[in-house]
Design goal:
heterodimer, A: mainly beta, six-stranded mixed beta sheet, four-stranded antiparallel beta sheet, 50% strand, globular, B: mainly beta, 11 strands
Chain lengths: 117, 118
């Protein structure tokens, strides 16, 4: 069965520095998608970045990049130049192949990031 | 284009009452997913619906929980005879395509309904 693991319950980073949030996954299917979401204290889920299992290059979206290491089954999120507004919970998620009943998302436990001024 | 709407945003129920959570997907989306987030945990899949059909309910508790997505109107997640353990945030997500969308089939999340059972 698919599984997502985030081993860092909480992380601190100094403002303007870069930070890496870890995510490992487990699946036997060669086709999968990996997502990162941000959940601020207000509670909504904000999509950040996506990486497909067949994508040749690591995904980037502004200050967010995904360090995708397929052999290690890891999909770490890198946030460059941290800002105070980056303080939030961050969730890694994996999508099952859509032919398997529609492609639900499987979430990790989350990492709480605190950015210090 | 309005996003996914959920109401109510906050719902308080006493043990034994019924809770009804509503989700209006984005315009043009006919696929709805419900997730539950217990305190201090990540989101857990509950059910996936298309209009008038339940496609995958593998994450739904066997009793007291039901979901529907009628031809007209919002999707409803219904919890009968609520217990304290049902206190959680319930998120709805919608997507424009399901099976045909491929892996990059973004699910757009609503703001969630926070259910508190007293």
């Amino acid at each position: 069965a698919q599984k997502i693991t985030q081993t860092q319950p909480g992380m601190f980073v100094q403002e303007k520095e870069a930070v890496t949030l870890d995510c490992t996954y487990d699946t036997s299917d060669p086709s999968y998608g990996l997502f990162w979401y941000k959940q601020p204290s207000s509670g909504e889920m904000i999509f950040l970045i996506y990486q497909g299992s067949y994508d040749q290059q690591n995904a980037t979206e502004g200050r967010y990049s995904l360090n995708f290491q397929k052999a290690r089954k890891s999909a770490n999120l890198v946030i460059s130049a941290s800002q105070l507004g980056d303080s939030a919970m961050y969730f890694c998620a994996m999508r099952e192949p859509v032919y398997n009943q529609g492609g639900k998302l499987i979430f990790g436990q989350g990492t709480e990031l605190s950015v210090k001024p | 284009n309005a996003g996914v709407m959920q109401n109510p945003r906050h719902l308080v129920r006493r043990r034994g009452q019924e809770a009804r959570l509503r989700c209006s997907p984005m315009k043009g989306h006919s696929h709805v997913y419900w997730y539950r987030q217990l305190p201090e945990e990540g989101l857990k899949f509950m059910v996936y619906l298309q209009k008038e059909n339940i496609i995958d309910e593998s994450g739904m508790p066997k009793e007291r929980f039901s979901a529907e997505f009628p031809k007209e109107g919002p999707s409803i997640l219904r919890i009968q005879q609520v217990v304290r353990g049902d206190s959680a945030a319930y998120f709805c997500a919608s997507s424009p395509t399901g099976l045909a969308g491929g892996l990059w089939n973004e699910q757009f999340f609503g703001p969630g309904t926070r259910l508190t059972v007293l």
